Amino acid sequence: MDEDEGGSERFTLSIGLHEHFIVARAAGELDYTSAKMLHLQVKDAWQATRTSGLVLDLSGVTFCDSMGVGVLVLLLKQSPSSRATWSCRTSRPCWSAS
């Protein structure tokens, strides 16, 4: 991972489709500055496509502060359908909601 001048790891995000699911892969520090990017890009992907759900791959995330956790909860609450599958993947077991 690259480091910026502040010493924190740079946050990267890639979003794609796999079958009928949006797959968002994040790496680096999920904090105050990167949480907004994650929220906006996933929200844009939801608006651009009809999907069955969202898979968040956070296995590359090295740090997550309260803003990062808050945006994950916000994404869960704002998912387009109450029946959409929403899954979170980390390097350790995390949680999943349907």
Explain what this protein looks like in three dimensions:
The chain is 30% helix and 37% strand. The protein is α/β, with parallel strands linked by helices and 98 residues long. It has a 5-stranded mixed beta sheet, covered by helices on one side. Helix 1 (32-48) runs parallel beside helix 2 (66-77). The longest helix is centred in the middle third of the chain and has 17 residues, at 32-48. The model is unreliable at 1-7 (pLDDT under 50).
Distance between the termini: 32 Å
- Count the E strands: 5
Helix content: 25-40%
Order of strands across the biggest sheet? 1-2-3-4-5
| Major sheet size, sense and barrel closure | 5 strands, mixed
- The computed structural class is alpha/beta
What gross morphology would you assign?
Answer: globular
Topology:
Layout: E1 12-18, E2 21-30, H1 32-48, E3 53-64, H2 66-77, E4 85-89, E5 96-97
Parallel strand pairs: 2-3, 3-4
Antiparallel strand pairs: 1-2, 4-5
Helix pairs in contact: 1-2
Overview in brief:
By secondary structure, the chain is of the alpha/beta class. It has helices at residues 32-48, 66-77; strands at residues 12-18, 21-30, 53-64, 85-89, 96-97. α1 (32-48) links the parallel β2 (21-30) and β3.
Characteristics:
alpha/beta; about 35% strand; about 100 residues
